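User: Can you write out an input/output pair for a complex, sequences first and structure second?

Assistant: Here is one pair. Inputs:
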Amino acid sequence: MSSRQFAYLSNYAIYSAMFVYTVAFFSHAVEVAFSVRHAEDSTKFDFARTDKAGRIGTAMMILGQIFLTSGVLLRGLSAHRAPWGNMYEFSITGAMAFSGAYLFALIKYKLRWLGLPVSIAVLLTLGTAVAVLYRPSAPLVPALKSTWLIIHVSAAIVSGGVFLLANSIAATYLILDHIESRGERNAWAKKLPSLEYLDQLSYRLVAFVFPLWTFAVIAGAIWAESAWGRYWGWDPKETWAFITWIAYAAYLHARVTVGWRGRRAAWLCLFAGSTFLFNYVYVNIWGTGRHTYSGL
Amino acid sequence: MKEKNIEAPLGGFALFRWLWRQLTSMRTALLLLMLLGLGSIPGSLFPQRTQNPMKVRDYLASHGSVGVWLDRLRFFDVYSSPWFSAIYLLLFISLIGCVLPRTLEHLKAIGKAPPLTPRNLDRMEGYEILSAGDLDKAQAWLRKKRFRIRRDENSISAEKGYSRETGNLLFHLSLILILVAVGVGSLFGSKGEAIVNVGERFINTPTSYDSLAFGKFQSDQSMQSFSLRVTDFSAKYDPATNAPQDYTLTVAAARPIGSSEKKVVIKVNSPLTYGNTKIYLQANGYSPVVTVRDKSGNITFHGPVTFLPQDANLTSIGAIKVPDMTPQIGFVGSFIPTYDRNSRRGAFSTFPEVLDPRLLLSVWKGNLGLDTGIPQSVYRLDTSKMTKIALKQLSLGETLNFGEGSITFDGWRSWVNLQIVDDPGKLYALTGAIFAIFGLLLSLFTRQRRIWVKRSNQVEIAGLAKNSAPGLIEELAQLKNWMEDEL
């Protein structure tokens, strides 16, 4: 097959993934929205009746992941390189990492309820990528031609996916915390785990991925040394990667040594995650520096 | 590590000790870390002299007194500003003061028994009263699981996961090593750039550089002896998108200067390495080759003149100065590698390779201003004491006669911008980075926990996991099964 055919196939895979994620989104929404009161005892809820919608949602998330992953792989095949050359490609890979992190965490933790925000986020990311950021598939500029592209960018993207997942959980924590401070949880919120569980989970995710983020920054430094002549040059992207690193380091210290839990820790987690997003959006689109390539 | 004494004591040594304790408290270290992050933000929002001096100049020109004040606060040289260095140094001292005592403490604790069993176990995690239990049996189990054990007559206190602190300290010591490496690099390193035309030779001496900066403890004495003759440079571009695909620079290198030359290829991601010195291919462009003659036909200037690229298609501008003519002659030129023109943009380049070149020249006569003593840009003509006498667009081989003489567009050569960096701290930084990751993994994935077994008129077990690490309850259940198992 030619490069162009691969590129077309990749686009179709992305469109299919968007359709499937939409179905996943509606299934999760149905599960959350229609909590049925128990037939005999109206003070209790009968979750079994919406359970099916939730399971369809998970199945769709997996199918969407397959389409999305094929889309990313085909994009790489069409350009004969790792598909990380411009912002369209970063976005589809980032969405893949985010929903992948969700599915991966789903194996171990009871996280199905998170499918709703994850599917929305993936849909929005893919939508923006297709509508605004799309660029035809093309070879890399010389500065990107290095094995470090695969090492550095994949580490950064996976870290990003997990950071965002931890962020979603911290945000859920804050919302539920707000609800609980006013009284009992609403019907839909009763299905969600306890505050303590959410608090621990977002910490575990960050503690798990912080070394990987550290590695991503170091791999970037090693690459920068061979491509640009210095391992650290306070390029805006580097600066913000460093700020993200510091924010998460502060979060870990706050939890481990100072003993922060709950609301304060969740806010700090959200702050740290937002520095990551800021880095992605601001530096790539409005920023200057050496991390801006090929238009976007 | 907690310092409750907020009141500063008077007197020399006491005050010093108080300040030292404040500085080396964990709280201060964290605060300084946050400050370092906060302090680096302006550097990403405002243009920086080290990265883009032109943009700084434009910003200052268009922002008036705001710009002047920002400049006084060193917002355009954030990372070398006194306030940023202050945060950096304080953090460095604070880290050392925080980590070294803990390291000593940790080393002293090697092989020491865990602390005594607490009196009331029922406040701990997973507390349970067992139906049966033998302390020796529990000890055997804990030993098999490689716990550190303190055996008293009627109790066992066991602890596991000391490598959590080992990893933690390793990580922070590595950070100190990285900070040292950055310091070594900036004090003992050097960094310079030089533009070299294809066919020319670069000799590694200070005068060959267009710009060169030494660290505080470094001078030109320490420069490596080598020379590079640029024999070939090739750039490939995508015909559809005009995006660059490959740059290959071939040089004949002699090290030391005067020794026999060896052919070396330098690419964007593979610099040439001589010890701590690396030579990078950073940028490229075109130097049009021209011949200038005076009225009587004598050659007054001949050779390539470096022009600076202005866009992705390498439309380049520059200046040609001929001081040896009377009156002095200067040319403001733009070189267009692949020519096209429209009414909106005038003449412009449609492709970065030289396919259909043009040289656009405006000719000036008068005083070039070279003897004023004020340094001048070689890419710009100071036309304040000159008058324009001609304007022409030249194709390859064409000659413009401007009355005072003539100029011929003979051809072009590629030039490359070599960046030559000497950073003796680099290897330390890399070592620090590798150890930092190992330390981090060790400290984040080691579960540190204590388990107690106590015998009075009943047998009790309980535990405590640091930072509520998972798995303790399961572990205690296993111990319980083992102890209650009659065999």
